[in-house]
Design a protein that fits this description.
- Helices cover 46% and strands 10% of the residues.
- It has a five-stranded parallel β-sheet with strand order 2-1-3-4-5, with helices on both faces.
- The protein has two domains: 77 residues; 153 residues, Toll/interleukin-1 receptor homology (TIR) domain (Rossmann fold, 3-Layer(aba) Sandwich), CATH 3.40.50.10140.
- The N terminus is likely disordered.
- By secondary structure, it is α/β, with parallel strands linked by helices.
- Helix 1 packs across helix 3, helix 1 runs parallel beside helix 4 and helix 5 crosses helix 9.
- The radius of gyration is 19 Å and the shape is globular.
- Helix 8 links the parallel strand 3 and strand 4.
Length: 256
Amino acid sequence: MSGVHAIQQPRISRMRPTQRMDLLDQIGRELQQRFTFSEIDEFLSACGIAPPKEYNGPNSKWVFAKFALKDVADSRLLEIASGLDLEPVVASKVPALLPRNWQTASKLKIFISHISKDKDKATRLKTCLSVYAMDGFVAHQDIHPTLEWQVEIERALRSMDAFIAIHTKGFSESIWTQQEIGFAVARDVKIISLKMGEDPTGFISKHQALARRNRTAEEIAKEVDAILADDARTADKLAAAKKANAAQLLDDGIPF
């Protein structure tokens, strides 16, 4: 742990809010995997950071670690990441493992899992989510012809902030959608199931699904926004994305 202090910090002037949140997420997940709660306290102390005395959040080492580091300077976070042998995504302007359509996005990254015959529904939901500073990944729309499709899907799954599954008839029979769900479960990202003809199965069957109930895509998108704004894994990122998106609209001089 003493090596944390000796690591040379990467050269970067200032992190954007989304970069800082990504780094906090990366460190939090690494501490969650390696240590117990008491060991995280010891690690923080060894880094010269006082563990929080008052923490009323969920019983999650990942959330606890992010809470403890939320006020730490950017340069210190980079040192901690290096001490954990992490390669922060802020080390470059465009992370190499992002799918092509997400490389310049400041919005919340949403992977929309669907079967091919219902790609229009996925695309429609993506359009409605964009109003809430979310950028959906729809494989049948966002993979460029010159890129290997499976690599782009894997990149989106590795870098997504949240996962939406559109459970239309035939969804549970697709090998690809079931693998995508497994990826989302393993990464512990927020998963939202949209019931449109099928009930969720397998690992996500225990969670209550959103029923369409004849609602429009706009209404579904509004509920998705409320859910993600209330989840500890996505709330801060979504708020930052909305702020950045609003600033971008003002910079562009586009009335809204």
